[in-house]
Design a protein that fits this description.
By secondary structure, this protein is an all-alpha fold. Helices cover 48% and strands 0% of the residues. Helix 1 runs antiparallel to helix 2. The longest helix is centred in the first third of the chain and has 20 residues.
């Protein structure tokens, strides 16, 4: 086969629920919807501001678990951005001669 390997593009999707969601994603969205339903049941929706605040848990968690191309979802992008910005940004080179250099600088 001329040393060409065929790897399916959707191998990771078989491990996800409905091909898109992890169990944590569905639990997060379910909690947001549950909080929204409780707020809808107990708060009077007299004004637009109260209505927006009441619907915001489901909208925010829905935004976090929405699938995004090249990433899993928005929550994954936010976590990776946080890790990139909070981790060390100077990378030490450990190339092929890293261990061959004497620690005192002598040959």
């Amino acid at each position: 086969m001329d040393d060409q390997y065929l790897i399916p593009a959707n191998t990771k999707r078989g491990q996800l629920i409905l091909g898109w969601f992890r169990p944590f994603d569905l639990a997060l969205f379910g909690c947001g919807v549950l909080v929204t339903l409780l707020l809808l049941a107990f708060l009077p929706l007299d004004s637009l501001a109260v209505t927006i605040l009441t619907l915001s848990p489901a909208v925010i968690t829905g935004f976090l678990v929405i699938p995004v191309p090249y990433y899993h979802n928005m929550l994954n992008i936010i976590v990776e951005m946080y890790e990139f910005l909070t981790n060390r940004q100077t990378y030490r080179w450990k190339g092929w001669c890293y261990k061959s250099v004497n620690k005192k600088g002598k040959d």
